[in-house]
Design a protein that fits this description.
Distance between the termini: 26 Å
Order of helices and strands: HEEEHHEEHHEEEEHHHHHHH
Structural class: alpha+beta
Keywords: ATP-binding, Kinase, Nucleotide-binding, Serine/threonine-protein kinase, Transferase
Number of helices: 12
Shape: globular
Largest sheet: 5 strands, antiparallel
Family: Belongs to the protein kinase superfamily.
Radius of gyration: 20 Å
InterPro entries: AGC-kinase_C, Kinase-like_dom_sf, Prot_kinase_dom, Protein_kinase_ATP_BS, Ser/Thr_kinase_AS
Strand content: 5-15%
Pfam family, one: Pkinase
Mean pLDDT: 90
GO molecular function, one term: ATP binding
Helix content: 25-40%
Bound molecules: adenosine-5'-triphosphate
Low-confidence stretches: 1-17
Strand order of the largest sheet: 1-2-3-5-4
């Protein structure tokens, strides 16, 4: 398995991407999201008569280099190309020019799960259970490829037109067989072993799942403070309190996932995901129905057309002048 994966990844040049495009092939419209080094814009292929909307992730080369993210961007692209799962965003292609690299993704119209969570304040048990089963099923798949996702949070979970989840943003994904030591992720969702730089592996995703279940049911994360250093302190101490509305089985699962000692964390054993899926909070869940998208979603977007952007915020157009990277930095993207 390890050898196969190695071969697959090393043999997979990003140049193999499905089709080759250039920016002039597209009409760009609204920005639907922004990130640390670029934006995500709705785009349509000029030659496509059906005018199918895509999400074009446009990343500035100079910013990628400045933030030392060249390898992360390349990994994101490679990992997305090897993934094939009902709850993972599909990549349609990639290309670059002198200033930017571009990832062409399917457009997901329902917005971030974060928006739905904030509008409802918190989810009732069955709604949380629906979304968590889709995420657990996806983590099982990602981990089976020896990949840690490392950025689980409500902003990276999009809702598709049928109401099912699509996980996006594989910028921090990493192939991990042993431990890795990079500090990455969002403060509230960081596992204690990442903060303490003790080396971490796929178990950090099970920790983040515990944070997510808590936040879905409570409406706020278990470890919170205005100051990120205070958040880190609370995470390392591992002390949190449940609000009264969370039911006992959910509390038990959250406690087992939020084990500060990663070796005692549910999901950390050799049977990882299967142990999580067996927990009593999931009793009665038919995991085949989950995988086949046959469980009716609690909410579906009401779309006027395929390219409806009502569930995304408005962002101002990009007006900053963007520089070309130096010749040396430009070479870093040769194999993209
Ligand atoms: N395929 C898509 N369809 C619709 N909207 C999308 C899509 N992909 C991303 N978005 C929107 O753009 C936002 C930013 O995307 P993404 O997280 O992939 O960018 P990023 O540059 O990696 O961000 P970050 O700096 O947070 O890592 C998402 O939170 C979402 O709102």
């Amino acid at each position: 398995m390890e050898k196969d994966l190695e071969k697959k990844l090393s043999g997979l040049s990003i140049e193999d991407a499905k089709e080759s495009f250039s920016l002039s092939d597209f009409n760009l419209s609204k920005t639907v999201g922004t990130g640390s080094f670029g934006r995500v814009v709705m785009a349509k292929l000029k030659k496509d008569k059906k005018k199918m909307p895509y999400a074009l992730k446009i990343l500035k080369k100079t910013e990628i280099v400045r933030l030392k993210q060249v390898d992360h961007v390349k990994t994101e692209c490679k990992v997305l190309m090897m993934m094939d799962h009902p709850f993972i965003i599909k990549i349609k292609g990639k290309f670059k020019d002198n200033k930017y690299v571009y990832l062409l993704l399917e457009y997901i119209c329902g917005g971030e799960l974060f928006r739905l969570l904030r509008s409802e304040c918190r989810f009732i048990n069955d709604v949380a259970l629906f979304y968590i089963t889709e995420i657990a099923c996806t983590l099982e798949y990602i981990h089976s490829l020896d990949i840690a996702y490392r950025d689980l949070k409500p902003e990276n979970l999009l809702i598709d037109k049928e109401g099912h989840l699509k996980i996006t943003d594989f910028g921090f994904a990493k192939i991990v067989r042993d431990k890795t030591y990079t500090l990455c992720g969002t403060p509230e969702y960081l596992a204690p072993e990442i903060i303490q730089n003790n080396g971490h592996d796929k178990n950090v995703d099970w920790w983040a799942l515990g944070i997510l279940i808590f936040e879905f049911l409570a409406g706020y994360p278990p470890f919170y403070d205005e100051n990120p250093w205070e958040i880190y302190k609370k995470i390392i101490e591992g002390y949190f309190e449940f609000p009264s509305n969370i039911e006992t089985k959910a509390k038990d699962l959250i406690k087992k996932l939020l084990s500060v000692d990663p070796s005692k964390r549910l999901g950390s054993g050799s049977t990882g995901a299967a142990d999580v899926k067996k927990h009593k909070w999931f009793r009665g869940v038919d995991w085949d129905l989950v995988y086949n998208r046959e469980i009716p979603p609690p909410w579906t977007p009401s779309m006027e057309s395929e390219d409806d952007t009502q569930y995304y915020d408005d962002y101002p157009d990009s007006t900053d002048p963007v520089e070309e990277p130096s010749v040396e930095d430009q070479e870093l993207f040769d194999d993209f």
